[in-house]
Amino acid sequence: xxxxxxxxLIRFVAKSGVNEVSIEEKDFKITIKTNQQPTYVTAVAxxxxxxxxxxxxxxxxAPVISAADAKAIxxxxxxxxxxxxKSPMIGTFYRSAGPDKTYFVNVxxxxxxxxxxxxxxxxxxxxxxxxxxxxxxxxxxxxxxxxVEYDQPLFLVEPA
Amino acid sequence: MQNNTISGLFIGQNLISLKSVDSTNNYLxxxxxxxxPLPEGxxxxxxxxxxxxxxxxxxxxxxxxxxLTFSILLFPVFLAPLKQFLLNIAVSLAINDTITSFxxxxxxxxxxxxxxxxxxxxxxxxxxxxxQGSKWKYAIVGIGINVxxxxxxxxxxxxxxxxxxxxxxxxxxxxxxALSSSINNRYNQLKGNDFENHIEEYKKNLYRYQSMHAxxxxxxxxxxxxxxxxxxGQLEITVxxxxxxxxxxxxxxx
Lengths: 160, 254
Prior knowledge:
The complex is a heterodimer.
Chain A: H1 3-16, E1 20-25, E2 28-33, H2 48-53, H3 70-81, E3 83-86, E4 91-94, E5 110-111, E6 116-122, E7 125-130, E8 135-140, E9 146-148, E10 153-159
Antiparallel strand pairs in A: 1-2, 3-10, 4-6, 4-9, 5-8, 6-7, 8-10
Chain B: E1 15-21, H1 24-33, E2 43-49, E3 68-74, H2 85-103, E4 108-110, E5 114-117, E6 120-132, E7 135-145, H3 162-166, H4 172-191, H5 196-204, E8 212-217, E9 220-229, E10 235-239, E11 242-246, E12 252-253
Parallel strand pairs in B: 1-2
Antiparallel strand pairs in B: 2-3, 3-7, 4-5, 5-6, 6-7, 8-9, 8-12, 9-10, 10-11
């Protein structure tokens, strides 16, 4: 299951009115809980106190998001509504075409599919990354000229 | 240029010659941004490139009409963006082979993408890619070779030209077509998954390969031997018994 399918599943579960869905495949397991009428679930007894104290709309479990901490839960919440632009490689993240140039995009900006949002430099190869969707930049997750890992989330875009 | 479709040569079939432009890479990018359909292998050649980039905003100081400054448009959609260093290897090798045949003696590739003769730079490659999300759309391969220029800015050290090495002028168009077909062949090998020897050849032609030299990392000088290049492009230097791996900004040649 890829991240897109997970996002779709979260959206589907949120709309469906059920409060928990578990799917288990060969080497993959996901549990999605909604905060509609929180129920006590013995299967996740360890996490139950947390879940009761802070009901969250979605908490995928390992291995997709192994760190089941608050950060991951928050990320999952964002992903349900937003499209994440990720780094296609290891490199350095640049928000502009040069030190004296204006940023390609800022938070709140409308972007069109095909519009350049950043440059990732890897071993002197410069990669202009275009947005795949039309929408609005909600969050910029990396500082200008910092190192990024493969698949690291860079932007959250709210699709139009 | 004649039609070479049968031999699989397509680089330079569509040649756009400009008198003067800020940079041939920018020109290509602007054309693509205007959704102008350009065939793969299109070459933009400029007599005068007044704002060419050595690396991120380092200006390339070139006398108009003396040197080769051009960009090639490629569609390497068959390669994952993660493997893009392989394109850099293929292009650097092709340039190194061609220049070696023109000057009759070895030049070297200085990691990652400069061409050196002894301790002096004669040219370089700057690849700019356009990706939609995680899919590779275009590669714009910018190439600059010092050909017939004999005087250089005093502020730039360690620089030379082909004509300074061999003592006579070279015809730019002859060199351009030799470079185009050589890059075309290496690119076809990459496309045909027939590039196993590329990394080995790149290493063999690497400036300072396997000999002791001084480097600096995090402000600390050390001596070591370049012993490997990873497919993703990292430089491996053996220091004593230890192999250290470096990204571009983590190591300085002393």
